Amino acid sequence: MGNHGKVALVTGGARGIGLGIAAKLAEAGFTLAISGRRSLEQVQPALDEIRKHSPASIYAQADVSSGEDRRRLLQAVEESFGRLDVLVNNAGIAPRVRADILDAQEDSFDELIATNLKGPYFLTQAVAAWMIRQHASDPAVHRSIVNISSVSATVASVNRGDYCISKAGIAMATRLWAVRLAEYGIGVYEVRPGIIESDMTAGVRGKYDALIEAGLLLEKRWGTAADVGRAVCLLASGELPYATGAVLVVDGGLTLPRL
Ligand code: NDP
Predict the structure, then answer these.
(1) What is the Cα–Cα distance from 152 to 92, expressed in whole angstroms?
(2) Which residue ranges have their beta carbon within 6 Å of ligand 1?
(3) Which pLDDT band, with edges at 50, 70 and 90, does 135 fall under?
């Protein structure tokens, strides 16, 4: 069936990297459900962009850190499409304030973990249960879960320890779910972006411009949402078989050790 008729849910799919992923998946034939905290009115232009390729696509307002919102989100997908083939755990936040780990506060830690780790972990749990049921009735379909982590899963930044820990956690969550869901034919993957142009990095633009200029990357440019979208699309389309649990690094060479 290719990707046509298949449904993909992208959390945080109405801007930034999530929109890049959703647009690429729509272009590749998927029908999209995107989610975020903002109202439908606020995200309408993004939804219109996705609908150019995939007219039936929907938006659901849902805070990924809330169990009740996650339940309503999946209910909306089920009511609209009756199936879910791909989950992309993309929604995430940076710390409100970058603070040295000697001073950083617990409330920031709690917010980061709830949004970037606990939310996607339990959304995966709920989606996994649904995908297992779908597998029982239709085992031939390729289903997948893709987690958007970060180079911060392994690169230590002492002014945002909470963020690094949330991303290291989602890297392990990927491995755990890959092991648990393999018997149901569900591929679980991690896409690990480097420095990507988005609202999240807008405030540190100058810092990263200087680092890139000084040779931080092998590919000397900012990454784009479309770069990440292509990687996710490859995995979601089943174009990388025999690779469950894989980490796809999209960082222009940032984390390649050099002497
Ligand atoms: P943005 O800040 O541009 O966008 C964040 C997205 O996440 C928005 O769509 C936002 O939607 C959504 N979101 C945030 N909090 C919640 C929440 N509680 N519930 C539901 N949705 C939420 O960030 P990016 O696009 O840059 O980041 C996307 C992902 O990529 C994140 O996980 C980030 O950690 C990761 N990443 C980013 C990198 C970068 O350089 N930009 C590098 C590596 C990884 P809304 O505002 O509508 O709620």
Answers:
(1) 13
(2) 11-12, 14-18, 36-38, 63-65, 90-93, 115, 148, 150, 193, 195-196, 198-201
(3) very high
Exposure string for 132-162, b = 16+ CB within 10 A, e = fewer: bebbeeeeebbbbbbbbbbbbbeeeeeebbb
The protein residue whose alpha carbon is closest to atom 32 in ligand 1 is: 92
The pLDDT of residue 63 is: 98
What is the reported pTM? 0.98
pLDDT given for residue 154 in this prediction? 98
**Rg of the Cα atoms in the chain:** 18
What is the average pLDDT value for the chain, to the nearest integer? 98
Complete domains list, the chain, with CATH: 7-250 (3.40.50.720)
Question: Is position 163 annotated as part of the catalytic site?
Answer: yes
